[in-house]
Amino acid sequence: MKTIFRLLLLFFLPLMLASCGDKKESAQSCSIQLDEQKYSKVSENENCTNYERASAYLGRAGMSFANFLKTGATDNLTKTLGISKLSSPTDYTTGNRGFVTDALCLVGANAFVTSSRCNGSSRTRSTDELEISMFANIADFIYLNYGVLDNDSNGTLSDTEVEGFTKLQTGGISVDGLGTGLAAYNDNYEVVIGDNHFIANSDLSKCSPYTGESNGRYTDNASHNTTCAAKAIEIGISITDLRPIFKLDNMTDITAGGTLNTLVSMVSELSMISTALSSDFDSVGISSENSVRKQLTLGLGKLDNGAKDNNPTANAACSAVILFDVMFLLVKNAADNSTTVSELKSGNLINTADLINAVDKSLVDKLLPVDASDAMKALPMKSARIVYAKDSPATTYTDSYEEAWSGENSLYEAMNNTRRLGTDDSVKGDGKVTFRELICVAEN
What one-character-per-residue DSSP string does 425-440 give? Predict the structure, then answer.
């Protein structure tokens, strides 16, 4: 909380200095009125600059220096800032968040200005406006999280409140293979030799080129009688990756335990705000390593946690994300109908270590056939490939998750719902907040 106080001090000191310098001018100048905390007058005065009006709107939202000088102000942000319970993450007008919205519509990133939140037009911002925008973004972060999650308005985000909001259907899901229908696909492999990709049988005695066309797709069986070893000699490069191909017939919809639209909109809002904040920092030349930037974003550390438990030990495993990752890692890199033949070479892959450690430990004995040769055992195996059932019971398979069997409680529905929660990597302190980080808030 003290970080927020220091943040506000850094914010309003330039305003105070600027307004004092203007006192020799008209007593009615916008900057003088700001200094006198006449926020309503300045915010509604179209003759004032966007910088001044946005500053005034933030003042009306409670983000004022005087407000934070009050006794106990930093003990309960919900009370100090007048944060009202929001009906949803996209409730932009309830309580003082409406004033934050007004500020963002004046000086915010074009992503805000041109959205339905503002219905404005793209514009170029001055450095002053970018600086105010940074603090408007931080204010929006605070209002969004406390307005949505702080059910009892006591200024504290409890484990119960966060876990209740991010509730997922984790029953019947485990890293031992429960919740997924993964199995070896005809004991087939993808063999990578430099930039060349092949489909191979279980002992690599047949090696057909991947073409993306009939008989050359990852869902096809190898038909050429040339061995993969012979292909490597012909190309003049050793085999660089041996990728077992697994079929996914079904998976549990992990989002079934919560209100999907609310979760998705929360992630969308967090992503939009954090992206805008990061962009504003970059635009004014404040790098990610800058001490001022780190100081300003320190208060967001509970959210921007890298999907790790950082309390009391940094980068410890976050228990909330372990079960989510069973499903998340399966869909994170899924190819869709727009994926090209070339792009598919890197699509539908999952890191082998993630597969056997975070998704399904039982697959450790199925990466290679029981009678695999020593030469095959010695080949590098960095990742595995996944294909998806097109029908149920499964008889045919596809490389596009959008063509997976659909309908109620279907493979497509489970994959699509999980992907809607976001597929970006979670990086601690990068200024962006993912769903995986959100469900770890209670452990930070």
Answer: ---TTSS---HHHHTT
CA 1 to chain centre: 25
pLDDT at residue 298, as a whole number? 65
Q: Are strands 180-193 and 196-200 parallel, antiparallel or unpaired?
A: antiparallel
106 and 232, same domain (yes or no): no
Q: Do the beta carbons of residue 318 and residue 307 sit within 8 Å?
A: yes
Nearest to 429 by CA among 294, 280, 322: 294
Place of tokens 């309830």: 94
Number of compact structural domains in the chain: 2
Reference 321, options 162, 120, 205; nearest CA is 162
Q: Are residues 216 and 113 in the same domain?
A: no
Find residue 247's DSSP bridge partners: 183, 387
Residue 38 is predicted with a pLDDT of 92
pTM of structure: 0.76
Rounded distance between C-alpha atoms, residue 267 and residue 435, angstroms = 6
Residues 191 and 68 in one domain: no
442 found inside a domain: no
Q: What is the three-class DSSP state of 389?
A: strand
At a CB cut-off of 8 Å and minimum separation 6, what does 404 contact? 248, 388, 389, 390, 398, 410, 411, 412, 415
Rounded distance, CA 152 to CA 148, Å?
11
Same domain, 85 and 232: no
Q: What type of residue sits at position 200?
A: A
| Domain range enclosing 327 | 180-254+323-419
Cα distance between residue 290 and residue 279, in whole Å: 14
Ordered mean pLDDT values, 10 residues apiece, the chain (444 residues): 42 40 52 90 94 94 77 72 90 95 96 95 93 91 88 80 77 78 94 97 97 93 95 97 97 77 84 88 85 68 83 84 89 96 97 94 93 96 97 96 93 92 83 82 77
Q: Do 16 and 88 reside in the same domain of the chain? A: yes
The first and second tokens of residue 255, run together, are: 């989002």
User: Measured between alpha carbons, how far is 251 from 253 in angstroms, rounded to an integer?
Assistant: 6
Q: Are both 25 and 107 inside the same structural domain?
A: yes
- Which of 296, 292, 19, 300 lies closest to 135, judged by CA? 296
Do 185 and 150 lie in one domain? The reply is: no
